[in-house]
Structures are given as structure tokens and as C-alpha cells.
Amino acid sequence: MVYETKKQEKCKKNHIFVLLFRLNIMLKRFVLLLFISCSAVFYAKSDNDFFLHTVERGQTVYSISQMYHVTMDDIYSLNPDSRTVVREGQKLKIPQESGSYVFHTIQPQETLYGVSKKYDMKGEDILSVNPGLSVQTFQIGKIIRIPVNRVTTPVHGDNEAVENNKTNSLLTQMKPVKAVSPVRIALLLPFSTKDKKDRMVEYYEGFLLALKEIKSKGISVDLQVYDIGSGLAGLSDILKKEEIQNVHLIIGGVSEQIRKISQFAGERDIPYVIPFTSESDEPYYNSRIYQINTPQSYLYSKASLAFAEKYKNDNIFIISDNKNSANKMEFINALKSDLQRRKISFNTISTSDITVDKLKSQLSPVKRNVFVPDNDSRQTNERLIAALKAISEPHPEYLVALFGYTRWQIDAQQALSEDFSKLNTTFFSGFYSNPLSNEVQTFYKTFYKWYSRILENTFPRYSILGYDTGMFFIQALDRYGATFEDRISEFKYNGIQTCFHFERVNNWGGFVNTGLYFVDYQNDFSIHRNVIN
Predict the structure, then answer these.
(1) Rounded to an integer, what distance in angstroms lies between the CA atom of residue 519 and that of residue 433?
(2) Would the pTM of this model clear 0.90, i.e. be above it?
(3) If we measure between CA atoms, which residue out of 478, 448, 479 comes closest to residue 463?
């Protein structure tokens, strides 16, 4: 009996041991499965922590970071190769930051109705935060904002086909033209700032000449003009004034003032024109912004494409003058990339190599020999012109051409105009006024008649900038009303100095002017300004 009891106790202990052993194995398996499951969940969450942005022409890591309110380091950490260069068509991972919006990449066969159902809101809710969204911009790979911290209206309706058609048709609708009269404009200029006073006065005077011409066409304008000084204190008081709350357009501001005015305009849904800088970040996230001066990356990108088209059948030389003075490498890199993409050959040489003896094997007697320096300095220009004239004058069988930059219009005014013509020179710029043209001569005479002085010797001419700005925007407002943004691509105005071609930077941001001229100096000493589309 005692033996049986001991035996039973031993069996029980063995049974308990086996159970514990099995439980231990099961626990280990459970922990392993839990780890795998958690890893899978963590991995899925990581995928949702970023979205894909397809790089478009003219975009940089900086501009992309501003567009999505992330840092450049955030982008670099997910895309290490972007530290060196980003190219058109390249896909970048962008961190999905928590905030008022998430960003959605449009997928193949996706529709606005499909996106609205995915996020349980109406198409109108999506369009309200993506004012640039249309049939043309709702494309595979494009990004749209989805509001997350606001009240939205889920899609309801028994007939899904009807809701589908109704929602998708929103992309084809345009805001009705609502006439405004008089056109109310607020001009905010830092007149009392010493280093800017003369230019601001001249800009204002040019704007008044536009106003005079516009009123002769029967357009009524109510112009409010304010001296906003150099800081924010005076500006804040001005923006509290009752009369400025309901204007149809605001123009002006410099430096830190731009953000303050942009915030004011955005809150009140007032179009805001930034006339004096190409470096503002506001167009990336304020849909009511119009920046007249083209951002450098957009300018270089468009000029590079146009160069490749203009000189695709020519013999191209890219001149490396001195690494320390190569201030146009951003353009040169874009140019090389476009030429290589189109399989257009080019040569890279130094200024010291521009002699007949050294270039004899590379110069073409049947093609234009086009020379592009990697910097825009006056010193480089003079050395380059001297070297090219030493080739072209004794050897007329070689057709030589020179291609360059915006700053060259200063050199042209300072005695190099004749040399530019002899060397078939072309330069690109977002602004140019030909002093020999009838329209510019007429403007000079009108300006002198009204103000009894000649224009300031600046590039661009601030008086003509004021005139062009007034003529473009006041007439656009008169024709299309306060909602002229939907039709701005339809409005054509041939500026005396400024090339206007506004493009929206993304589906929720504002507009930048990407207008571009190629200015050609001909052998007959004529000058032709050509708009690049």
C-alpha cells in the first residue's frame, strides 16, 4: 500500500514534469509567434509611416521638404541617395507626419470617388484642401492632402453609380466668374527703408502708370497704399485696418513680412502677389500665393530643356573656367543631365583650351560651335569673348555661338552688346526689356513725362516691374473676378519686361511664375526676345 502510494506520487511528479515541459515549449512558441506577429505589425506600421513622392522638374530636396512640412534630414534618412542629387521621375519616401493632413499618392485606376470612400469623406472635403485638383492634376503618382483633424461628411447614398459619377464630376467643375467693381487692391511697400526706398518708389510709380492706362479702359480701381517699414510692428497694425480686410488683391512685402502677409491673406482667402523675391517658401503651402520671380531651380530646369531643343544638332562645349568661380553648376549639372538623357553629345573644356590649335580636332566646320561657361562673371565673359573672337574672326568658316545667363544683360549694357551680336549670343532670363524696342522707348518717355527723371539703373527695372504687375493682375481680376486662379493660364499679357506664366506648385499650394525668355543677339545687331513655352 505504501509502495503503491509512493509509486503513484512518483508518477504524478513525472506527469507534472511532462506538463511543465510541454507548457514551457508552448510558451516559447507563443512568445515566438507573438514576436513574429508584433514584427509584422511594426513593419506594416512602418510602411504607413511614409508615402512616395515622384520628383518633378525643378524640384529640389529643399522644396519637397517645405511642401510636406518635414526637414531635409527626414528625407535624407529615408532616401540616402538624395543627398547627392534628385532627378525628375525619381521616387522619394516622405515621412507621413502627424498633423492636420495625411498625404495620399494616387494609384492606377483610382478615382476621386474611390479616394473619398477610402477615407470615409465626401469628394468636396478633399477638394476643399486641394484647390489645384482637377482632371489634369488627378494623375497616377500625384499627391493629394487628406484632412484628418476636421469634421468631414461621409459618403452616403443608396445608388453607388450615381455617387461615383457625381463625385468624379467635381474635378471638371470651375468656380463661376464673379465680377468685381471696383477692383480693390492693397499695395504694401517698405518706403521708409533706406536701402529699398528708391526702388520701392519707382515700383509704385510704375504701378501708377499701369493704373492710369487701365482706368482709360473703363476699369474702376480702388487702390490702398501703405508704408509697411522694415519690420513686423507697423505691418501688424496695418493688417488690423478695416478697409484692408475685404480687398481683392494684396501686393508687396519683403523678407519676414511675406509670411505675415501670407498668413493674413490665406485666412481671408485673398490672392497675394509676392513681387520682389524668388526664395519664398509660401507658394508650397498657401494656395492664394502668386510669386512673380521664378525660383532658381525652376528657371534652370526650363532653360536647360529649351537649350537642349535649340542646340540639339550643334557642337556643344561646356567651359569649366575655375572651380572656385563656378557659380552656375546647378544649371550646368541640369544641362548635362538633359543632354545625356536625349543622347546629345557635348565636350567639356577649360577657358585656356579655347584656341584654334587646341580645338582644331573638335571644332565643326558644318555645325554651330556653341560655348556655355559654368559661371556668369564679367571677367569670365571678357576672357571667353576674347578667345572666341580669336577663333571666329580669322576663321569665318567656323560658326561660333555663345550661351549664358540673366546677369549678362548688365554686361550687354556695359559695352559688350556688339561682341554679343558678333558671337551670336543667347542668354536666358525671366525678365528682359529691350531698350531699343518701341514699347520700352514709349515707357521711358511716359515715365519721364510724369516724374521728370530717368529710370534707376537696376535689373530688373523696378518701374517696369510695377507696371507689368499692375497690368497683368488688375486686368485678370477685371476679366475673371476674384476666382481668377482657375483661369490664370488662359489670361495672356505680353509684359514689357516680365514673362508671365504661372503654374501651381502642387495640388494644395500656390503659384510660381515659370515664364522664361531666350534673348538672342543677331549678327545684324538686332535683338530678339523669345518666349519659351
Answers:
(1) 10
(2) no
(3) 448
